[in-house]
Amino acid sequence: MAKRVIISGGGTGGHIFPAVAIANALQRVAPDTEILFVGANGRMEMDKVPAAGYKIIGLDIQGINRNSLWKNLLLPFKLMQSISRARQIIRDFKPDVAVGVGGYASGPLLMAAGNMGIPTLIQEQNSYAGITNKRLGKKAKRICVAFEGMEAFFPAEKIMFTGNPIRQESVDIRGKDFEAKELLSLSSQKKTLLVTGGSLGARTLNKSILAGIESLREANVQVIWQCGSYYYDNLKNYEALAGADHIKLTAFLHRMDLAYAAADIIIARAGAGTIAELCAVGKPVILVPSPNVAEDHQTKNAQALEEKGAAIVVKDNDASDQLVTTALQLLQQKEKMKQLSQHIHQLAILNADEVIAREVLKLADK
Q1: Which of 26, 112, 191, 235 would disulfide-bridge 86, Cβ 3.0–4.6 Å?
Q2: Does residue 57 contact residue 99 with C-beta atoms inside 8 Å?
Q3: How far apart are CA 364 and CA 2, in angstroms?
Q4: Cα–Cα distance between 43 and 40 in angstroms, integer?
């Protein structure tokens, strides 16, 4: 008999891509599985999930606004309404299991499912669990994690080390170096930095590269600079970029595999999904954790790699002065680059999506 699975969460690509990867794996492992997504109205999952071929229902829920306390006054009411709506969705869809990947919608849906006797699975992507997942973990049947030491947040007997699901098409870089440099109009005679701040971009990374344009030119280094849609229109008109043919500025990279393939060093934020892809790619990495995330989890993610000799970490408030210099110094240290590449690649888990999908189906069978 076909199983019915609800997958909840979203808000950022870091939550959406793993969710879609799990859904795709479920379809491969058990093609007759019926899947419904539950997201937050107005968030990017409401567009991305249908584009991936899945139905999604939105909840009217928001996160805590840390900049304006008065905007949080309606939060308790929205939470109660969302839990009520989630209960109705569960009654209508009749899932065998509910999966939470993090994000605003994950809390109300898993709370409702747990209270209604539906087995739940949490996919915790970060090395530091947030408040919502810690609470949900008390009723969850299984908690799939990507970092060691998660017993600090969840009951040890519920934890399963799976790694984070990744976009397989983005990390398949084998034999693509020549194609990448041709399509991206890069010189095969120059070293290449890839700078990526995610689909929205990262202000600190953008400021740091802008400040180091001349140093990069003098060092004969070219840059694939994915600055984010929010910053692109402003950056492309900067005088410093006029005639800077060593800088390939783009708002978004549709072919991450080619960008990864062309890079000698990758500079990125330290979201869990990004780190999972970087481990699979196996290139030397410099991480600049964002300080503007819940529980500062990006710093903890980055430190977990740094402790294993798998990445170099530059603090956000040091990046403008140190990031480009650190990258240029690393390009001169071939042995260091080799070690970083080996150590980060050893952390790669390529089949996390299928491992999690099979665990979801086990819970559904029970």
Answers
A1: 112
A2: no
A3: 10
A4: 6
Q: Is the pLDDT of residue 64 over 70?
A: no
Pairing mode of beta strands 34-40, 4-8: parallel
Q: What is the pLDDT of residues 117-151, one digit of tens each?
A: 999 999 998 888 888 889 999 999 999 999 889 99
CA atoms of 200 and 202, how far apart (whole Å): 7
**Two structure tokens written together for 206:** 């953008």
Q: What is the mean pLDDT of residues 246-258?
A: 91
Sketch out the chain's domains with CATH numbers: 4-166+350-365 (3.40.50.2000), 169-345 (3.40.50.2000)
Structure-token pair, residue 163? 């790694």
H helix or E strand, kind and range, residue 192: strand 191-196
Q: Report residue 29 CA to chain centroid gap.
A: 24
Question: What is the C-alpha to C-alpha distance for residues 104 and 64, in angstroms, rounded to an integer?
Answer: 9
What is the Cα–Cα distance from 54 to 228, expressed in whole angstroms? 26
Mean pLDDT computed over every residue of the chain? 91
Residue range 9-20: average pLDDT? 83
Which three-class secondary structure state does DSSP give residue 1?
Answer: coil
Closest CA to 295 of 63, 17, 7: 63
**Which two three-digit tokens encode residue 295?**
């529980």
Q: Check residue 94 and give its pLDDT.
A: 97
Beta strands in 3-119 (DSSP E): 4-8, 34-40, 55-59, 97-100
Task: Count CB neighbours of 366 within 10 A.
Answer: 9
Specify the 3-state DSSP secondary structure of 262.
Answer: helix
Contact present, 105 and 49 (Cβ < 8 Å)? no
What's the average model confidence in pLDDT over 319-340? 97
How far is Cα 192 from Cα 195, in angstroms, rounded to an integer? 10
Distance CA 262, CA 179 (A): 9
Band of the pLDDT at 349, cuts 50, 70, 90? Answer: very high
